[in-house]
Amino acid sequence: MTLSTSPEGVSQGRRVSPVGVGRAHAKAVLLGEHAVVYGAEALAVPLPQLTVTASARRSGRQTEGPGDVSFTVAGPLSRPVAAQASDGLRRLISEFSAAMRVEDRPHLEVTLDCAIPHGRGLGSSAACARAVVHALADLHGRQVTEDETFALVQTAENVAHGRSSGVDARAVGAWAPLLFREGEVQELSVGCQGVFVVADSGVVGRTKDAVELLRDAFQMRRGAKEEFLRRAARLTEEARYALADGRAEQLGRRLTDYHELLRAAGLSTGAIDGLVEAALTAGSLGAKITGGGLGGCVIAVTGTEQADEVEQRLRAAGAVRSWAVPMRGSADDER
Description:
CATH topology of the largest domain: Ribosomal Protein S5, domain 2
Structural class: alpha+beta
Shape: globular
Number of domains: 2
CATH architecture of the largest domain: 2-Layer Sandwich
Family: Belongs to the GHMP kinase family. Mevalonate kinase subfamily.
Oligomer: single chain
GO cellular component, one term: cytosol
Number of strands: 10
Order of helices and strands: EEEHEHHHEEEHHHHEEHE
Largest sheet: 6 strands, mixed
EC number: 2.7.1.36
Strand content: 15-25%
Keywords: ATP-binding, Cytoplasm, Kinase, Lipid biosynthesis, Lipid metabolism, Magnesium, Nucleotide-binding, Transferase
Distance between the termini: 20 Å
Enzyme class: transferase
CATH class of the largest domain: Alpha Beta
């Protein structure tokens, strides 16, 4: 199925530009964290308020070798994070040149202006990579398909994080909620009225630690992995159909149930649990941690009228910022 993609994100012609520009946005996982790594389904929603813009230009500097590149990062990404991300992006640029048969490889100056907080499970590294892919396409006058973009973003993601499920690489280019499984995606039908509220705890998540913690737990008890995946798959499937059928209360309950699944596995924190409780007390239909765990963000399902109150309660409970995203599919998008 063809996904709705940003018109700014796709190079439409073969004109070579003096400066190439590409954009992407954040995402949040609705359900399916950790299970998706083992081949299960995950549901994700785009966060179009949080964007990254990449620009690429040829430099007049003397190159140190083919594919030589320098990076400048603006926004909330820290310098250590920028240095770590640059390894994956350098690999991505090399792979782009090979795949798109770019023979001229001058020194490149790449600038990333990223408003996506790092380490919160919001897809900052994948969004940066996607933006760079489309900046390079614009710069070199190439067209890239969604599948080509996905493969290139995964190149950077696998360097940055080890084996990546791919959900971030797909979701940071989508404009509607989507279902992801083993690299394939489809847009979700949305019959609910309401709002997704995402709140940042201000604490960097530790995805790698969380993955290892869960893997160790699976090894300690026979059947633990199968039990976790079975429960995760059922909750994700039920949430998918609740979203499509307009059963917002059931959708919310499935989110809270999934949070309990992750909390029981040791993947939440006291601060995250406090935010979940605050969202529920304020009238949310359901709430959970989103992303790898051990920090990061909370996502809540609320009615439209309750969204402001929920955001206020979340901030009072310690969230450093929050974003509200209306529930809608691509057919409802008036971009």
